[in-house]
Amino acid sequence: MNQFEQEALAYHAAAPAGKVALQITKDVNTAADLALAYSPGVAVPCLAIRDNPEAALKYTAKGNLVAVITNGTAVLGLGDIGALAAKPVMEGKAVLFKKFANIDAVDLEIDERDPDKLVEIIAALHPSFGGINLEDIKAPECFEIERRLNERLPIPVFHDDQHGTAIVVGAGLLNALALTGRQASDIRVVCSGAGAAAMACLEMLVQLGVRREQIYVCDSKGLLTTRRSLSAEKEVWAQDTELHTLAQAIVGADVFLGLSGPGVLTQTDVMQMADEPIIFTLANPEPELRPELVREVAPRAIIATGRSDYPNQINNALCFPYLFRAALDCGARTINQAMKLACVRAIAELARNSPEFGPGAIVPELLDPRLLATVCPAVVAAARASGVAHR
Ligand SMILES: NC(=O)C1=CN([C@@H]2O[C@H](COP(=O)(O)OP(=O)(O)OC[C@H]3O[C@@H](n4cnc5c(N)ncnc54)[C@H](OP(=O)(O)O)[C@@H]3O)[C@@H](O)[C@H]2O)C=CC1
Ligand SMILES: CC(=O)C(=O)O
Ligand SMILES: [Mg+2]
C-alpha cells in the first residue's frame, strides 16, 4: 500500500470512524426541554402533520434532508462492489451536501439489486426526506428506477451519475470549445462508456448543439454500431459504420469523453486526435489515461479528470449540492431540464468570470465559495420560470 493509500485509510479511521455524524438542533438539557422534544410535546407536531402533511416542513428536518441512496452496483469506476463497500462514497456525498450547501444528507446503502424491489423500498422511505439523490446504481437498471420514482414521488429524485455528471461535462465542454475556437455543431466526439453517466452526458451534448451523427460511443465490447445487437438505450447511439474499435473511431476526433474505466485510452489514441484535443478522462478514481501521459503526446490538449489532485476537476460534486439546495428552497417537486441547463450555464459562466479562466481552469474548483451564491439563484429562477417551484 502506498503512502497516499495509507493516509486515506487513516483519514477515514480517525475517531469517530467515517465522515459524518448527526447533530441535535434544539436544547435538550432539562425535563422541560424533554417534555417539548419528546413526550408529551412531540405529539402536537405529529397531529399537526397528520392534519396537514405540508407542516412536516415546518416541524421536522425533512425540508433540509436528502437521502443519498445506492445499491452498490456501479461504485465510481470500481464496479459492482456491493452496498456496504459503497458506504465511504455515500458518506462522502453526504459530506459534500453539508459542506457546500448546508444540506443534511443521510447515506442509505440498500442491499437490493432487483429494480422493482428497490423502487418499492425507496418509495416507502420517501416521507422522511425532502429529496432523493440516487448514486452509483448501474445502467441500464438506473434509468427505469429513476423514471419510476420520479413519476411516483412528490419530491425530487435525481440520479447524480447521470444528470450531475452531464451538467458539469456540459459546462466544461462549453468552455473548452470557446477556448479552442470550436463550435459544438462542428465537433466529433468519441465516448468510452455507454452506462449511466455516458448516456446522460451524450444527451446533454446534443442539447448543447453537438450533432448526434458526430458522436461515436464504445462500451466494453467496442463501438456501438448498427451491426451489433444493442439495448434500446445504446441503440440510439449506434453508427452505421465499418469501424469497430475506439482506436479506429478516434482518428481526427475533437473530443474524447471517458466515462468507463482505467487504461481504456492510449497515448497512440491521443496522437490520432485533432489538434488541441479536448480530453475528459472522467473515470474515478483512475482515469482512462493519466493527464501527464496525455500531455506527453498532446501538449496543447485541454484535459479534465474527475479527481481533486489534477486541474479541471469535472465531477458531479460541482453541481448536485447546489441543485438540491435550489430545489429544496423553492419547493420544486422535480429537477427538470430547464433547471439542469440553467446549472450548466451558471457553472460555465462562473469559470469564465474567474481571473484564472483558461485551459487549466475550464470549470470552477470544487471549493469555490461563489458556487452557492451563483448557481442556486440561477436554478431557482429556472424552476420558477418553468412552473415547478411550489414555494
Ligand atoms: N467524474 C464524474 O463526475 C463521474 C465519473 N463517473 C465515472 O464513469 C464511469 C462509469 O460510471 P457509470 O456510468 O455510473 O457506470 P455504469 O456501470 O452505468 O457504466 C459503465 C460503462 O462503462 C463501460 N465500460 C466498462 N469497461 C469498458 C471498457 N474497457 N471500454 C469501454 N467501455 C467500458 C461499460 O460497458 P458495458 O455497457 O459493455 O458494460 C458501461 O457502458 C466510472 O468510472 C465512474 O467513476 C461516473 C459519474 C460521474
Ligand atoms: C463522481 C461520481 O459520482 C462517480 O465517479 O461515480
Ligand atoms: Mg457516482
TrEMBL record:
Residue positions of the active site: 38, 93
SUPFAM superfamilies: Aminoacid dehydrogenase-like, N-terminal domain, NAD(P)-binding Rossmann-fold domains
InterPro entries in the record: Aminoacid_DH-like_N_sf (IPR046346), Malate_Decarboxylase (IPR051674), Malic_N_dom (IPR012301), Malic_N_dom_sf (IPR037062), Malic_NAD-bd (IPR012302), Malic_NAD-bd_bact_type (IPR045213), Malic_OxRdtase (IPR001891), NAD(P)-bd_dom_sf (IPR036291)
Residues given in the record as (S)-malate binding sites: 284, 315
Entry similarity comment: Belongs to the malic enzymes family.
All residue ranges annotated as the Malic enzyme N-terminal domain in the record: 17-150
Binding residues annotated for a divalent metal cation, in chain numbering: 135-136, 161
Cofactor note: Divalent metal cations. Prefers magnesium or manganese.
Transmembrane annotation, as ranges: none
GO molecular-function terms, A-Z: malic enzyme activity; metal ion binding; NAD binding; oxidoreductase activity, acting on the CH-OH group of donors, NAD or NADP as acceptor
Malic enzyme NAD-binding domain ranges (all copies): 162-384
Name of the molecule in the record: Malic enzyme
PANTHER family on file: NADP-DEPENDENT MALIC ENZYME
Domain of life, per lineage: Bacteria
Pfam families xrefs: malic, Malic_M
Keywords: Metal-binding, Oxidoreductase
Origin species: Duganella guangzhouensis
Required cofactor(s): Mg(2+); Mn(2+)
